[in-house]
Write a structure and sequence with these properties.
It is a single chain. By secondary structure, this protein is of the alpha/beta class. The protein has ten helices and 18 strands. It has two domains: about 250 residues, Ribonuclease Z/Hydroxyacylglutathione hydrolase-like (Metallo-beta-lactamase, Chain A); about 40 residues, no CATH class. It is about 25% helix and about 30% strand. The chain is globular.
Length: about 300
């Protein structure tokens, strides 16, 4: 299964002339997930030709404005377009109280129906599940309650070797159990191990989103082996003291987290507006984790 990630916004709190606050779209078979919704998200959706009607699940990491100020505008536009969907919003429980007064002032009957799902900021939690995909939230370390998100394909069952079915006259009724990990006992009492009977399924596809957060090693166990990790790198290493004070991360700390998590690839972002050129971000991070790229508006990544 393939995931496709589109970067809508890569900057931190202050937007620049060419970088927007945080927002991403992750497309998986059957679903289009919006991750954070900074100001200008709906403009970026238009520019990247992403259909508003496909978005039915929005994940808001925390309640700093640059991660949700675009939400009311997006909902309003979807309503004006006549989109008639439940819109599931996973966020801090206070978000509903913050935007409900604005929702109440939207003219006419609401066609979009926001459904709020409170996040758990103390421990990991399964917050979404379909037949093929699941989403896990987990706490990170920031100046107010913040969650990261892990999007992963469900593990497929092993594939049974066709030649083994014939060799041991395996009945159809036993195949499902074997795919799930069971051994097989022949009519003569011989036990055939599952490892001999099957071919392991491919590793499930996965994507982890970690921002805003200071360097926080407990994350690594949760996202271990992730294919693509997005981790904030708000500051270059020269401003590590400021990063520590504001509970953000530097380039090299992002690289250390990718290495600690055994990530396949690292994508950095959430740049401070003080930096016009992000090439130094990539250079510094690659000193720790070579397979690093810089998130930039409009970039797409196939996972």
């Amino acid at each position: 299964m393939s995931f496709e990630l589109t970067i809508l916004g890569s900057n931190s709190a202050l937007p620049t002339s060419n970088r927007y606050p945080t927002a991403q779209v992750l497309e998986v078979p059957g679903f289009c997930f919006l991750i954070d919704c900074g100001e200008g998200t709906q403009i970026q959706l238009r520019r990247n030709k992403i259909s508003f009607s496909k978005i039915r699940h929005i994940f808001i990491s925390h309640l700093h404005g640059d991660h949700y100020y675009g939400l009311i505008g997006l909902i309003s536009t979807m309503n004006l377009m006549g989109i008639k969907n439940d819109l599931h919003i996973y966020a801090h429980s206070s978000l509903k109280d913050l935007i409900q007064p604005q929702l109440d002032f939207i003219r006419g009957d609401m066609t979009v129906r926001p459904v709020f799902h409170p996040l758990n900021f103390k421990k990991p939690q399964l917050i979404f599940e379909s037949k093929k995909v699941e989403v896990l939230s987990f706490p990170v370390k920031h100046s107010l309650p913040t969650c990261g998100f892990l999007f992963r394909e469900k593990q497929k069952p092993a594939n049974i070797r066709k030649e083994m079915i014939q060799a041991y006259n395996i009945p159809i009724a036993s195949i499902k159990e074997i795919k799930a990990g069971a051994d097989f006992t022949t009519s003569t009492g011989q036990v055939i191990s599952n490892t001999d009977l099957t071919i392991p399924a491919p590793k499930p596809t996965s994507y982890a989103f970690c921002t805003d957060t200071a360097y926080f090693p407990p994350i690594a166990e949760i996202i271990n082996g992730v294919d693509l990790l997005y981790h904030e790198a708000t500051f270059l290493e020269e401003l590590r003291e400021l990063a520590n004070k504001t509970l953000h991360s530097t380039t090299k700390e992002a690289g250390e987290m990718a290495k600690l998590s055994n990530a396949g690839k690292l994508l950095i972002g959430h740049y401070s507006a003080r930096y016009k050129d992000v090439s130094r971000f990539v250079q510094e991070t690659r000193e720790v984790f070579p397979n690093t790229e810089a998130a930039q508006e409009g970039n797409k990544y196939l996972i």
